[in-house]
User: What shape does this take?
Amino acid sequence: MSSFTTPLIGEYNDAMTLFTLTEPFTFYDVAEKTYSVPIGFTTDFASIPKWLRWLIPPTGLYGKAAALHDWLYRTGIVSRWRADFIFLRAMKVLGVPKWKRRMMYRAVRAFGQKYYQN
Assistant: This one.
């Protein structure tokens, strides 16, 4: 079964908009692959448009999954499709409600292309 094997530890910038890891964190994927996000990686968590943040804020139960997804997109170590699927699986591991994880997965599938490897 997939699982996060370490906590997400870091600090926010002064504006509280970016989070930088001060410790690496790891996700073990059921496909027998381990992904380790390194110290110093910076994330904005979920890139939610401001007008929709009343429903889904940038941080929440899915925070670790969003940080992992940002790292997968930025590094390009897996295909965009695989990164999005890992995001979906990671949200399930974290207990994100089904309706919310499906909505977030569909959003990254629909709008994520311009952010992949940027």
